[in-house]
Amino acid sequence: MKKILVAYEGMVQSKTLKVAKDMAKDAKAELTVIRVIPFEQAGTSSQTEDSIKALGVSAETYKATRAKAAIKKETEEGLESIGMENCKVLIKVGEPASEIVNAADEQNVDLLIIGSRRLAKEGEVQLGAITERIIRYANKPVLVVK
Q1: pTM of whole model > 0.85?
Q2: Taking a C-beta distance cutoff of 8 angstroms, is the pair 90, 104 a contact?
Q3: How far apart are CA 68 and CA 94, in angstroms?
Q4: What pLDDT digit, counting tens, does each position of 45-99 carry?
Q5: Domain ranges for the chain
Q6: Rounded CA gap, 34 and 66, in Å?
Q7: Residue 118, exposed/middle/buried by CB under 10 A (0-12, 13-18, 19+)?
Q8: Three-state secondary structure along 96-134?
Q9: How would residue 123 be classed by pLDDT, with cut points 50, 70 and 90?
Q10: 20, 55, 93 from 111: Cα distances, Å
């Protein structure tokens, strides 16, 4: 195993990150962290529509670019705080399951690690919609950390 991609939701105490970090260390694999900003959360801007247009981009593109930069900085700082400063960080804007599956293919990873935060009755496993779609459509092996 040479490349691992882990989906990250912004919680540095994440069990998923710990599993990914340990597996990458044991396998001496390259670890990439992906964080996806859903379209509806891509951010707002204090810039006026006219000033954005003057830059030659749409308001949506401008807001998404600013959101990506802020989230990337926040993600890198969070990862650094838990000793994961050597990870590659990908920030995408879009539908989370699709972006994660596409990134796994584009990065040609050997393993995709995702978390499952859905709570279920004791003894039952219940996956969230995003986790379920990733498992269904991924072309790479998927490890779900609960």
Answers
A1: no
A2: no
A3: 11
A4: 444 455 445 545 566 666 667 778 888 888 888 888 888 888 999 999 889 999 9
A5: 3-145
A6: 17
A7: middle
A8: HHHHHHHHHHHCCCCEEEEECCCCCCCCCCCCCHHHHHH
A9: low
A10: 10, 40, 22
3 contacts 108 by C-beta, under 8 angstroms: yes
Q: Scanning the structure block, which residue is given the tokens 């990150």?
A: 17
Q: Of 139, 29, 144, 31, nearest to 82 (Cα)? A: 31
Q: Is 116 left (phi over 0), alpha (psi -120 to 50) or beta?
A: beta
SS3 6: strand
Sheet with 111-115, strands from edge to edge, namely: 88-93, 30-37, 3-7, 111-115, 142-145
Question: 77: which 2 tokens?
Answer: 């700082």
- Give the number of residues written for the chain: 146
Per CATH, the number for 3-145 is: 3.40.50.620
Residue 76 carries which side chain, given as an amino acid letter?
E
Residue 48's Cα: distance from chain center in Å? 30
